[in-house]
Amino acid sequence: HFRFPYWSYQIDWFNKQDYGPVETDFLLPENQITNNQYISTTKTKFCSHVFHNEWQNPRLEMHEKLSEYKQVDGFGSHFDEHINGYGAKYNLYKDYKFVICFENAIREGYHTEKLFHAKTAGAVPIYWGHSSVSNDFNPESFINLNDFESVDALVERIKEIDQDDSLYQQYVDAPLFTGGVVADKFKPAAVLDFFQNTILA
């Protein structure tokens, strides 16, 4: 088996303008992961939350409890506020300081586009998912519910970060990837190497 995580499909590895009849406005070139038009946008709103499925996870509890502190703008079928595609999500996230990005379920290695989109739009991700996320992303670049005893404790930490500009900036400045660059194991060349040296060898 070869693991190529779903979030890695959000990167325009080949810097092409056209990939055919697919949605490409969400693809971010590798050299724009830390510096792009979304990151540089001034954050004028507090927090956004996009989801369609409630499943058995703490999404609604997180949304409701954080909303008691400041307004959390909800988008997706649960809120009857729809957005069209990942490209639209970037244009939405660019205005927010924080983004709640909980996975649909906790499974080892299951880390989708959610955290990646939030961070590369310049927001501080508020994440929930499997602890293996630290194998993909720098844990200092996002706020992880798994690091807290409860949603209540997480909300208190978000309040603290929101009210301390220097603390907030630490999260903003922390690179998404440990070492500041995408690890080679997540790049298309690793897939090619796997087939050439493992499958076909």
Descriptors:
29% helix; 201 residues; alpha/beta; 6 helices; two-stranded parallel sheet
Summarize the structure.
The chain is of the alpha/beta class.
Describe this protein's structure.
The chain is α/β, with parallel strands linked by helices and 201 residues long. The chain is 29% helix and 14% strand. It has six helices and seven strands. It has a five-stranded parallel β-sheet with strand order 4-3-5-6-7, with helices on both faces. The protein has a two-stranded parallel sheet with strand order 1-2. Strand 3 (45-50), helix 1 (59-67) and strand 4 form a beta-alpha-beta unit. The radius of gyration is 17 Å and the shape is globular. It starts with 10 loop residues before the first strand and ends with a helix. The model has no long low-confidence stretch (mean pLDDT 90).
Amount of helix? 25-40%
The total count of strands amounts to 7
SSE class: alpha/beta
Outline the low-pLDDT stretches: none
**Estimated radius of gyration:** 17 Å
**Kindly state the mean pLDDT as a whole number?**
90
Large-scale geometry: globular
> What characterizes the major β-sheet?
5 strands, parallel
Read across the widest sheet, the strand sequence of neighbours is: 4-3-5-6-7
Distance between the termini: 15 Å
Total helices: the number is 6
Give the topology string: H per helix, E per strand: EEEHEHEHEEHHH
| Residue share in β-strands | 5-15%
